[in-house]
């Protein structure tokens, strides 16, 4: 399953290539509470078909009414991009289902250039980050490769959006927990791969849509082209597999690196990496373990929910309070370190 942004752009490209009229809407600014973050996109076809979203549904309905139903599709005329605002008044906020005080601003692009979308998608499919810059006065779009994601910005004249390959997850160990975690990662838009050199584990894998890799995990991590949208999760419980993979990952740009295990096992892992592999407390700061948020999880499915929540928090730049960490919560409850 590809990311929703790429899906919106790909669908818009395909509609344009088929000769349809297309409106591309982007959440440019928000004030107060907003159902969708800035940068969220949707594509609207002249017959009312929609992919993506900019709100909980009511604004989409208004856009469909305004640009397709009301004018029979003629509302999608050739023009420079427009800015529209929703939720300015309390009545509008109620009408469009916005939270109290919520206001959002959309940039509307009418029939974005097919050639530009083609070029953008080629770059994204090749795994590259691209900065897309839209000038509202002219509708001109420029694409620039970039090494790092930047915050979405809009100053009323120009809109800058960094787009890139979908988020990826590499799991070490093809056990039951990995199957649950892979399922959750897939429906959150991650591209998922699982690595395990043990035939009895990898051959029993049952989750479709996941790349299966047979090989030593440290070699796999080295060859995986890890980038800032990659997370690496060690789930094998075997130090011979997990430790070397984690060592390789810690010297790369992955946004999340973690390993399953009890507090005691996590501490022993850190001691091994320091004593035998020359790591330091500072170099291990990025290593998470025990992984997950503390929700009292017991089963593989519940643990997967806990781990996926922590990964999504890291992806979204959310700092999780220490009381939600497994180590702090279990220590507070007086549980033994072996758990």
From TrEMBL:
Residues 169-311 form the XdhC Rossmann domain. InterPro entries: MoCofactor_Util/Proc, XdhC_CoxI, XdhC_Rossmann_dom. It comes from the Bacteria. Residues 15-72 form the XdhC- CoxI domain. This is Xanthine dehydrogenase accessory factor.
